[in-house]
Specification:
mainly alpha; Methane Monooxygenase Hydroxylase, Chain G, domain 1; elongated; about 80% helix; about 575 residues
């Protein structure tokens, strides 16, 4: 095998992986919102969750994308962890469709013959002005590249039968009984970790089997290893993520490790079952029979081996799901015990809750994650406003200082969250996004800017209170009551804004009259208080400086109302169709 063959093989592998990603991305863009609607509606019990996960993964050809979607819904409170586990089980069944597609179209039908002509249609669609046609064009191009890459991989892999000594060396790996099973299982795990794609590892395994490099049993062991490798990848991605992401990844691990454990214990009986089913369904030689060997992918034995390996992948996940679907509640309890949420919420308030770690999701899923984070940001901002009101009512110096420190802290938290969300949105914007997604992201940039300004407002109130105390000025009971009235009006404006954010998230926002009503109440109250202060100063100028501080806080509250009505207006312009 010369150096050019090596680079051709690696390039073909890269083409296969890129085609898989492009096809999955195009499918998600074309059907993203519909799939999210289906996911939220079809998970009322574990069985429906399994069917939903299986269907969505079969459509978008990416169990990872389904898992990202599931975690996003768990974080948003639209799915419970139990429901999410059911969907993840179904995603494992759905991803087996890829193996069948590769085995049939890539080896038997040789779809690569049609791939180049199909690229013309992909190009034409991708140049359309309509976003949906562009997404379909991306899907077609990805589909073609996937099978062209697979074709090049098959052609660039050397025929070891021409070098018997090398073939014999490879076959010695499978001559150690059950030790060889464990060896190939480890090989499949490591290969999946390196390639970051169980689909690519499955394609390589199918090629090795069809070329006669390894026997059927060892290829099956590699498939079991791939199921372990894909869970390690998910756990690495979730390791710096939020608690729910870690629990979802851990439930995936428990599901697959349990499956691999029983499959290893019953390895040879399971292989005989796979062979019998393949022989019965397709009328082909039994790939698990004694002395079975593969002479090439086009021979009946080659077809039997390819279909048998795909059958093993499907039966493994199907049986595993049928066993564990009845224990989703128990799995949820186990992962919740293993991965506990932090008891000190105050220390973790600055951490992102919904934007998962690891690779960016496709734009449609990423916008969903970012919007969840914005709702969380708004809730944090409201909590900061409550501390500002508490500071206004506090007379005890030590407690007042503690509240001031909290307000400074919340201002820093707002800066941090705005930066993190903006950084995430920058990453989403760097990819190819639809006009609708671009409009939503622009609105999100404005919204997080307004929320950051709301965070600054609490710290501004703390500075006004500090200046008041330094000058040894006191607020009268009437002033305190008036400031509480303003604070309560701001709290109502927060409720209207958060209600509108949640309504947009659920696709239920039709108007923002609640926000306009809250803003009018704030403006009218500010005007009444300002007029009353002017009259009071005219009668008694001794309270002038205290009145200045008083009106400064009133104006801060009024500006907070402006920030909040801006957010609702941004929602109306970008999200109401």
């Amino acid at each position: 095998m010369n150096i050019m063959q090596v680079f051709t093989l690696l390039g073909a592998l890269g083409m296969f992986l890129y085609g898989m990603n492009l096809m999955s991305s195009g499918l998600q863009k074309a059907a993203g919102e519909r799939l999210r609607g289906l996911l939220s509606a079809m998970t009322s019990n574990p069985l429906k969750g399994v069917l939903t996960g299986m269907g969505i993964t079969a459509i978008i050809q990416s169990s990872s994308a389904t898992t990202v979607m599931v975690v996003s819904f768990v974080n948003a409170g639209l799915l419970t962890l139990v429901q999410a586990i059911g969907v993840i089980m179904g995603a494992n069944i759905g991803t087996t469709i890829t193996a069948w597609m590769v085995a049939w179209l890539g080896f038997k039908a040789d779809i690569s013959i049609l791939a180049v002509p199909m690229m013309l249609f992909g190009f034409l669609f991708s140049n359309s002005k309509k976003n949906q046609r562009k997404n379909i064009g991306e899907l077609i191009v990805g589909f073609c590249l996937l099978f062209l890459g697979l074709s090049f991989m098959k052609e660039s892999v050397p025929d070891l039968r021409q070098t018997p000594e090398v073939l014999e060396f490879v076959r010695t790996w499978s001559a150690h009984g059950f030790g060889s099973v464990l060896l190939f299982l480890a090989f499949g795990t490591v290969l999946t970790l390196v390639l970051q794609s169980s689909s690519a590892t499955m394609a390589i395994t199918l090629i090795m089997l069809s070329m006669g490099w390894i026997p059927f049993g060892m290829a099956c062991a590699m498939v079991l290893g791939e199921n372990i490798g894909t869970t390690i990848t998910a756990n690495i991605a979730a390791s710096v993520g939020n608690t729910q992401a870690k629990r979802a990844a851990m439930s995936h691990t428990i599901f697959n490790l349990f499956g691999v454990l029983w499959a290893l214990i019953l390895f040879y009986p399971f292989l005989r079952l796979v062979g019998t089913v393949t022989e019965t369904v397709f009328g082909l030689p039994n790939p698990a029979a004694e002395g079975f060997s593969v002479s090439g992918p086009t021979s009946p034995e080659g077809t039997a081996a390819l279909y048998g390996l795909s059958m093993l992948h499907t039966l493994f996940n199907l049986i595993n799901t049928l066993i564990l679907v009845w224990f989703t509640g128990l799995i949820a309890k186990v992962v919740s015990c293993i991965i506990r949420s932090s008891e000190n919420k105050e220390k973790e308030v600055f951490r992102l809750q919904y934007i998962s770690a690891g690779p960016l999701a496709t734009p449609e899923l990423a916008v969903e994650q970012a919007f969840n984070e914005i709702i969380h940001f708004a809730q944090i901002s409201k909590k900061g406003a409550a501390y500002a009101q508490a500071a206004i009512n506090e007379n005890e110096p030590r407690k007042l200082e503690e509240l001031k420190e909290k307000l400074v802290k919340y201002e820093e938290i707002s800066d941090h969250i705005e930066y993190e969300i903006a950084t995430f949105l920058n990453g989403v914007s760097a990819g190819e996004i639809s006009e609708s997604t671009s409009r939503k992201i622009k609105a999100m940039y404005k919204i997080i800017g307004e929320l950051e300004s709301l965070g600054d407002s609490g710290e501004t109130i703390s500075r006004i209170l500090s200046r008041k105390n330094i000058r040894k000025k006191d607020f009268t009971p009437d002033i305190i009551n008036n400031l509480n009235a303003m604070a309560n009006a701001v709290n109502d404006a927060y409720d209207a804004m958060i209600a509108n954010l949640n309504a947009v998230h659920k696709g239920q926002l039709t108007d923002i009259s609640n926000a306009y009503n809250a803003e009018d109440r704030l403006n009218n109250l500010r005007n009444d208080l300002r007029n009353a202060v002017i009259e009071d100063i005219d009668r008694n100028d001794k309270n002038y400086l205290a009145s200045v501080y008083y009106m400064d806080i009133v104006n801060v509250y009024e500006h907070m109302g402006d920030f909040m009505i801006n957010i609702s207006q941004d929602l109306e312009r970008a999200f109401i169709r």
